[in-house]
Sequence to fold (285 residues):
Amino acid sequence: MQEQNYNKVDLHCHSHFSDGSLSPEQLISRASANGVDLLAVTDHDTIDGVKLLLKQPSNLPLTLIPAAEISSSWENKDIHIVALGVDINNKIFSEFLKQQLRKRQQRGLLLIDKFENRLKIKEVAKKLKVYAKGEIICRSHFAQLLVDEGLAVDFRRAFERFLAKGKIAAVNSEWPDIQHSIKAIIAAGGIATLAHPTRYKLSNSRLYELIEYFSRVGGRAIEMAYPGIKPQQQRQLARVAKEFGLFASKGSDFHHPQQVWADLGKVPSLPVDIEPVWEQFDFNK
Ligand code: AMP
Ligand code: MN
Ligand code: MN
Ligand code: MN
Fold:
């Protein structure tokens, strides 16, 4: 493996091909202006933005890792798996993403129906097009609509009052078990990385069980540096990662420039005693 030194690494962010508000090109410019020199664009269940950027890779001011954030489930919980370094032409992975898209479209139709019939919002599909520039429809687009229609003051409350389990616009997401997502990621030569493990509201012992299962079915890395994570949580994750021989990843989970606490490249440091996942890639710089 060649020597690879990067000053600022961000391996988790979203463009307007999923629920971010910047185009892939704007994302690259902002990341570069913030000093990021190694970036993974990780849109929810799509690599369309990455494909666009990789049409002219020599124009990029930074090194780009082809990636996506895969919606998955484990014991009835939504769990996100970041696919790092996937071959964007891999047939198995492309077919897998098509199925994810179909699930999102079906769930989107159910949500549109609820918004129109229960919440009495008109022309929902047309309004959503303003936020969703690609094919992927996310619940966060519906949250944005609730805010713009004056039904919620912010995203958090839109989720809490309308989109959460048991609320008027709740829908079931039928995401594949993490085992299936990881299989598709491995088929495309990618490294399956557990996204933001402390955001799933799991007890320590349940989180340990998740990581044990994740590792057993082929997961290779864990995010342990992202906005909001506490040093004590980082230490604990580093301990568990070492136990299972997992690498560490970091990322802002950037969506919108207004969310200043999660700007591109604005990520805490990794614990010092753990191997960064990006050292596994051969970038041919
Ligand atoms: P989906 O993958 O379509 O179910 O949408 C999930 C996305 O919605 C996440 O990636 C977040 O960006 C956003 N999200 C989920 N829960 C919340 C919340 N409580 N507050 C704000 N954004 C949320
Ligand atoms: Mn999102
Ligand atoms: Mn996520
Ligand atoms: Mn994300």
